[in-house]
Amino acid sequence: GAVVSQHPSRVICKSGTSVKIECRSLDFQATTMFWYRQFPKQSLMLMATSNEGSKATYEQGVEKDKFLINHASLTLSTLTVTSAHPEDSSFYICSARDPLRAVYEQYFGPGTRLTVT
Amino acid sequence: QKEVEQDPGPLSVPEGAIVSLNCTYSNSAFQYFMWYRQYSRKGPELLMYTYSSGNKEDGRFTAQVDKSSKYISLFIRDSQPSDSATYLCAMVSRQGAQKLVFGQGTRLTINP
Asked: Residue A44 carries which DSSP code?
């Protein structure tokens, strides 16, 4: 089956610093990756859609200058939280779509728990 | 009004019970309907998907779609403690730029 990894699984950083989260598709090439954030006991909120080789498309209300997304290759997308603040503390999850499979088939990474102190 | 509504629960049932999880939606353009299971502090995993109205069975799980009522269900038979998780319904349309629209998720606990 399709496997998506995320690194790190957990990160603690100080307020004002930047944090990079990696999302990798391990056994398929993902032309599209998605970034979500999830608050405790809440559903997944789509932040942005990342297409390989082009700029990410951000959802309404998501600050593109704060959440930098780079999809530099068909197997790697990164999310950088810049100048992190405690309110950015959340569970960040990526998913990847295999273009050879159906539109509904997205494979999720295990998530990254970010804590900003 | 949210595009997808799902009762967040929590729902607690004894082991062996039949569980019914439900979502309603408002966008008639949704064509694919999925159920994801998410364990605590983990990413969601795809359980089942359906395309057309009707039932689809996979082991102890049955997914049901009623497009006329804009209502989908997931049934779990012979529920096990290992089924304890949050269950999220999700939907996508061809016009929706591949974006999944999730329900709020239902927290389910199966008590031994």
From this structure: E
Region B70-94: mean pLDDT is 94
Is pLDDT of A38 > 70? yes
Query: What pLDDT sits at residue A1?
Result: 67
Per-residue pLDDT at B94 exceeds 80? no
- CA dist B49 and B32 (Å) reads 7
Q: Do B32 and A93 touch (CB under 8 A)?
A: no
Identity of the residue in A41, A43, A111 whose CB atom sits nearest the CB atom of B88: A43
Residues of A in contact with B45 (CB under 8 A): 108
The Cα A28–Cα A101 span in angstroms is 10
Q: Which residues pair with B65 in a beta bridge?
A: B54, B72
Q: Which residues of chain A are at the B interface, by a Cβ-Cβ cutoff of 8 Å?
A: 4, 6, 32, 34, 41-44, 46, 49, 57, 91, 93, 95, 97, 102-111, 113
- The overall longest dimension of chain B from CA atoms, in Å, is 44
Q: Is 80 exceeded by the pLDDT of residue B47?
A: yes
| CA separation for the pair A59, A7 (Å, rounded) | 23
Question: Is residue B108 within 8 angstroms of chain A, CB to CB?
Answer: no
Nearest-5° Cα angle at B42, B41 to B47: 135
Residue B13: C-alpha distances to residues B20, B65, B85 (Å): 11, 23, 12
